[in-house]
Amino acid sequence: MLRIDKVTVSGDNGSGEKVEILDNVSASFDSGKMYAITGPNGGGKTSLAKLIMGIYRPSSGRILMDDRDITDSNITDRAMMGIGYAFQNPVRFRGLRVRDLLNIAAGQEMGGTRTSHRENMERFLRVVGLCPRDYAEREADGRLSGGELKRLEIAMMLARDPRIAIYDEPEAGVDLWTFERLLEVITNRQKNKKDGITIVITHNERFLKASDEILLMSDGRIQQQGDADEIWPMIRDDVACRWRASCGGELDEAECYR
Fold first, then answer.
1. What's the rounded Cα separation, in Å, for the pair 54 and 70?
2. For the purposes of burial, counting CB atoms within 10 Å of the CB of 239, is it exposed (0-12), middle (13-18) or buried (19 or more)?
3. What is the pLDDT of residues 6-63, one digit of tens each?
4. Which of 4, 22, 148, 228 could bridge to 9 as Cys pair (CB 3.0-4.6 Å)?
């Protein structure tokens, strides 16, 4: 279980003024469940993910993992504890091959040649739809497309097999085929990892409906958290009304939202 207890994260707005990026946030994530975090841009979704990973440090509040206080643990410590984070914009690695990255993610020596290492590497690539013969020796740099990098990052997450897996907008910048594949991989991994926690930051309806619970964030706060079957219809109707109103249409007209 992961628990965020009354956490505030403060930052600089660029003009020297202190602002609260996250404001007194509390949330619980139970083992065996998949969570979707959604809400307007700038609402604090990615900030919450980076807080959990240890990239951001709280100015107040606590973070607990299995009742252990990890508030002061850094990103390396949290990775060792079993927390993994897939960025919205995957990092490009010049000079490192795809197989090197997967070996590192799996905790194996870079360039290891043991049969088991190779078989695992090939399996992870196939799962995300990348042919090992075509990709294993390629550099993970700018020559890979956004969709290829997304799939590689998911493969690295599978290789690491973290207990808490955080995906930041895995649907962003990928084609429909890649999206369908990533959705399948992420949801199947959670189903097969009964003690795991999956957290997906998303605006995508498919991910929202596939999740066990949804958290709605805005203005640096969690506005709602509950079962997906209950929260999704509320979010859908509320967002539609807000967009219609902001576009100047009548509330019974959906053209603006569409």
1. 9
2. middle
3. 999 998 766 777 888 999 999 999 999 999 999 999 899 999 999 999 999 999 999 9
4. 22
| Each residue's pLDDT tens digit, 227-253 | 999 998 887 766 545 544 545 554 443
Coarse DSSP helix, strand, coil percentages of the chain, rounded to the nearest 5 percent? 40, 30, 35
pLDDT tens digits, 138-169: 988 778 888 888 888 889 998 999 999 999 99
| Three-class SS state of 4 | strand
Residue at 232: amino acid letter: W
Q: How far is CA 28 from CA 5, 22, 60, 169, in A?
A: 8, 16, 17, 20
Q: What is the Cα 12 distance to its own chain's centre?
A: 24
pLDDT at 234: 82
- Contact predicate 221/7, CB 8 Å: no
Q: Are 215 and 35 in contact (CB under 8 A)?
A: yes
- For domain 2-92+144-246, give the fold: Rossmann fold (3.40.50)
